[in-house]
Write a structure and sequence with these properties.
The complex is a heterodimer of chains A (272) and B (334). Chain A has 272 residues and is of the alpha/beta class. Chain A is globular, with a radius of gyration of 19 Å. Chain B has a domain of 211 residues. In chain B, the strands form two sheets. Chain B has a three-stranded antiparallel sheet. Chain B has a two-stranded antiparallel ribbon with strand order 3-4. The longest helix of chain B is centred in the C-terminal third of the chain and has 27 residues. The chains are: A alpha/beta (272), B mainly alpha (334).
Amino acid sequence: MNIASRREIFRTQGISKAFGSVVALNDVSLVVYENEIVGLVGDNGAGKSTLIKIIAGNHQPDNGELFIDGERVRFTSPVDARDAGIETVYQDLGLCENLDSVANFFIGRELFRKILGFHVLRKAAMENQTIDVINEMGINIPSVREKVEFLSGGQRQAIALAKFVAWKRKLILLDEPTAALGVREARNALDLIHNLGKEKGMATIMVAHNLEQVFSVVDRIVVLRHGEVVGTREKEQTTKDEIVRLITGAGLVNENTDAEGGKQEYMKEIQT
Amino acid sequence: MTSIASESPSVRNLSRTKLYIRKVLDNLVWIILVVSLIVFSITIDGYLSTRNFINIIYHSVFIGILAIAETYCVIGGQLDLSIESTTAFSALLAAWLMGASRFTSGMHLNPLYTILIVMAFGCLIGFINSRLVVKLKIEAFLVTLAMYITIRGLALWLTGGKGVSQLPDTFRLLDTIKISTIPLMVFILLLFYGFFQFLLTNTQFGRHLFVVGGNKDAAYKHGIKVDSVLTRLFILSGAIAAFTGLLMAARADGATAGAATWFLFDVLAAIVIGGVSLRGGVGSLVGVLAGVLLLSSIRSALNIVAISPFISDVVRGLLVLFAIILDSVKRMIR
């Protein structure tokens, strides 16, 4: 794909964050383009979680900036990030087990009409919209009126993802989306994520540990180690081994050079 | 085209029987109510009569209306233990403002102004509760427990144990009016249940209560103004408690500082029996109404049979225990 023709959806520039004396992130810059799925990988403690939290608005960076569609943005809370078009799907999925799929679909954005000052829910409309999206995405759920606690892990994951597709978000952050799923469910979820990225034209950042899964879905991989970007690779141009080496830092002649080299390569990409 | 087929047997293989059993368990309280009424009617002379049934509902009014407030709070993941004291204080306040004899302000205030002042008092208590819970982030249980004790104490202290009586006839109309021999309060009760159940299941506020009670974290993340929801919740609860106090003053033609004692336990018993989960996010006023009526039916039966009045408490306790066990059984059926 011609890099120059890709539209930039989201960018971080020089993000740094420290908690007390512990440096979680140091000068992290990355870009995500339209229709692209970026895999964010790294060992435990590499800073993936912190970076995601900053992008999602949970933390504020000490230094650096965020850009959406080329415009600088600042988030003081997750609500800001959400309003700007960023959605995060956490490991716990953010679902209400005590409610059905329709209700979960519309949390915080219920459709209603004003009657005598009350916000009366438009239940039929919400149900229809939910069914439409679920069918469109090919999700198999016996009934949208079933409480979510009775759905399987894969179905819940699907609902959580479907929410964001339907609401036309700009950037989706997936935090270990398959962590709680079995092999087959994980496969289905990954297919869904892949289709979301391609068909719906959004940008996606996926944090994951399982490189097998990462390779099966993403277009580009960004590797973090000790809070820094140590390399970005187009999936087609790299191997799992290389990524593992970047993650662990093993087998590198000069660690700094590699990180620098990675950064330079990357800056070139951004400037194109 | 992606298809997320159902992996685990949880939904696909959920047999018709299981779904049916779940449906039955959810509405068990109504079944128990009907069965109890039948049993009582057969075994107790004079139980089966319109007069008695209307009486049962009439004596459910106070607990019933308070149960609405408590149901809302528990569904929202909170608890309001102060409603009993707010009710008592409201009854006293109303009586003091309007009353003619004994511990009275002598103001003989117009009932309409009295109602406004008392309702404002209820909202104020609710507002104070909400500030402590939302701003200071203290557990609702603790906040309302403290209020429960404090307000009751205030009532006792301010009145010195004296009561007020002789309220204006216009105010007492709330209790004396009958529509084709059915007391107005019965209609008020049913109307309240109808209205508040609608509010709970068909409005944004009700839906947000379920979300906050089910997963507070998710509520925040989805942009729901949780603080606003909880504030409105506690104010509503206080207002309903105050309104109940007004009704009590009307029926008793006055009030004493000991009004509404032990109501809280009846209310909690009723809502648990009615299927409201104390963990939050689950419940329906339909079930709660059955719970309230069930408690009242049993008390009525025990009264007629004239067994020791304390057996009533034992029965109530057993029912609550049964309801809690039922809740666990329901969860095990998953």
